Amino acid sequence: MVRLVCFSYAGAGTTVYHGWADLLPPGVEVVLVRLPGRESRIREPPFTSMTAIVQALAPLLARHVEGPLAFFGHSMGALVAFETARELRRNHGRQPAHLLVSGRHAPHLQHADPPIHALPQEQFIREMVQRYNGFPRAILAEPELLQLYLPSLRGDFAVLESYTHVREAPLDCPISTLGGVEDARARPEELEAWRQHTAAAFSRQMFPGGHFYLNEKGGAREALLRGLSEQLIPFLVP
């Protein structure tokens, strides 16, 4: 058995990955990471720094999740997965067996976007929607839902905008990068740059769609899950 630990993108909860367990091979257990400020943890204050996130997650994974781990993260979740893997190595003597990162440029690369997490609400929403085409319009149309959603989203942007990459030795686990061919925020060369963060195998795979290609039911989503299955099958062979 291998446990696939899934990290969501900014503002999102675990519902992003609902249904995945039914579409992955038997023997793959999907473990969903639910951060404070969303879903059943909606009343908890969200994290606002990467250090706080990984120092909370790594001990839980080290203590309570046995057997081989694979990490999958999309966008912000890719960065959280990467830094959690490094925290596990630094302080818990453990690394994931495979790191799969999606829709996120390599951590040592910086986009020159001005910070937005502290902007007034209307300006914050406008800037966010412009950057990430595919933001759920249903949330924007429901004021009460939007007010529930905004604190975690602002917190996640604070995490991203305060993040500073610190150089360490490459991870020992393979890294696979995945992205949408129309995603201007994770271009092929920016995904390729993840190569320097592993001392093991590296691969890159592109799918139809933009930044939120993994939410597009049909070709892209199914192709992604087939690709993940192929990456995880080696851990299921006795």
UniProtKB/TrEMBL annotation:
UniProt-recorded name of the protein: Malonyl CoA-acyl carrier protein transacylase
Family that this chain belongs to: Belongs to the thioesterase family.
Source species, domain of life: Bacteria
Source organism phylogeny: Bacteria, Pseudomonadati, Myxococcota, Myxococcia, Myxococcales
GO biological process: lipid biosynthetic process
Residue ranges annotated for the Thioesterase domain, each copy included: 3-229
Organism: Hyalangium minutum
Signal peptide: none
Name of one Pfam family that matches: Thioesterase
